[in-house]
Write a structure and sequence with these properties.
The chain is mainly beta and 375 residues long. It contains one helix and 36 strands. A hairpin with a 4-residue loop joins strand 35 (354-358) and strand 36. The N and C termini lie far apart (56 Å).
Length: 375
């Protein structure tokens, strides 16, 4: 009888250990999910392996949800809501190398708070608000390699020309000074040593002014206005010069492009031969050798694009075969081998679909929207 009870106890303990091991395995497994719900005015960053979508607005309601897309497996995974910033749209997000930093934005009122998301642990942490910039939306942010720099935007009543630098290592904000004229919905990029602020809107009209901010000296230089384009909805940095194409002037779409060289503080023209038709609120990425433009609208949404080679000042079209449906205000990210297009909207219909464009093959492939898609 004692041997029988001992055998039962050993079997029970073995079964308990097996169940515990199985539960641990389940807890450590990341399951795929559907793509994030349709939305507009969200943020997107590329981590080196994943596209992270967060926030935005849909159906008149702001969101604090998101998703992570892995092109290697063509799958999505969810983002934790625990500790996430409050729902918002028209915010900014930058990738630091280990974290996504979300800041500002709003919908029915601007914010000056944010959060830091670590995809390795799927966790959020808060950002200090001490000395943070005033609440705003429609601003810009860049990552310098050690700091996030926030500039411009709108506080719900007026455009802003203020900003600050945030250091995530110390969780400290430092104001920036002597900024260019106030603006919103402008373009920004990081050259490796300067933040370039260009175009955007001042009041009801587009502007072609801008500035270059050096965080090492906390100083600004004005960008040349002569021959500078207006609007500048889509710009890329090649490593030596800025390329801008399309946008709006006097609220009309244009198909002109410009090249800006910081060394001479001067603008020159990009050829219009074989260039895409006029458009605004489109996207642009730099592939390492070409600027790839796609989508946008001239009153009618587009699913066409073009590839500009600055070495020979020439254009080539992007294939339309299997291209995503026409849209504007979408996301475009360069992975190192492909351009990822996601989201946006057409005639007030928001999308949670996209596509992957390979410029070497001039071909498109799809992005999964359902966990059950054949990946």
């Amino acid at each position: 009888m004692r041997d029988y009870l001992s055998l039962v106890l050993r079997c029970f303990l073995a079964m308990a250990c097996l169940l515990s091991a199985n539960n641990m395995a389940v807890a450590q497994t990341t399951y795929c999910s559907d793509a994030p719900t349709v939305r507009g005015d969200y943020s997107a960053v590329w981590t080196g392996t994943e596209l992270i979508i967060w926030g935005g607005i849909a159906g008149g309601k702001s969101l604090n949800t998101g998703g992570r897309y892995n092109p290697a497996t063509n799958t999505w995974s969810t983002i934790s809501l625990i500790g996430a910033p409050s729902a918002r749209a028209m915010h900014t997000a930058v990738w630091t190398g280990t974290e996504m930093i979300v800041w500002g934005g709003g919908y029915k009122g601007p914010f000056n708070d944010g959060g830091r998301y670590n995809p390795a642990t799927d966790t959020w942490s808060v950002i200090s608000r001490v000395n943070a910039p005033d609440p705003r939306q429609m601003h810009t942010a860049v990552w310098t390699g050690s700091e996030m720099i926030v500039f411009g935007g709108h506080d719900g009543g007026s455009d802003l020309n203020s900003g600050a630098r945030y250091n995530p290592q110390t969780d400290i904000w430092t104001p920036i000074s002597n900024a260019p004229a106030a603006r919103r919905l402008h373009t920004v990029l990081w050259t490796g040593k300067e933040m370039m602020v260009l175009g955007g809107y001042r009041g009801p009209d587009e502007t072609n002014t801008g500035g270059r901010y050096n965080p090492a000296t906390n100083t600004w230089k004005q960008t040349a206005v002569q021959n500078a384009p207006f609007g500048m909805d889509a710009v890329v940095w090649t490593g030596t010069e800025l390329l801008a194409w399309g946008g709006a002037q006097k609220h009309s779409s244009v198909n002109v492009g410009k090249r800006y060289k910081p060394g001479t503080n001067s603008w020159s023209n990009i050829t219009t031969v074989n260039a895409p038709p006029a458009r605004r609120i489109h996207s642009a990425i730099w592939s390492g050798s070409e600027a790839i433009l796609w989508g946008g609208s001239d009153g009618s949404d587009k699913n066409t694009g073009g590839r500009f080679n600055p070495e020979n000042n020439s254009w080539a079209p992007t294939s339309m075969a299997r291209a995503p449906s026409a849209r504007r205000l979408h996301t475009a990210i360069w992975t190192g081998t492909e351009m990822l297009i996601w989201g946006g909207f057409d005639d007030n219909i928001n999308f949670n679909t996209g596509g992957r464009y390979n410029p070497v093959a001039d071909s498109w492939s799809g992005i999964a929207t359902k966990c059950t898609d054949d990946n």
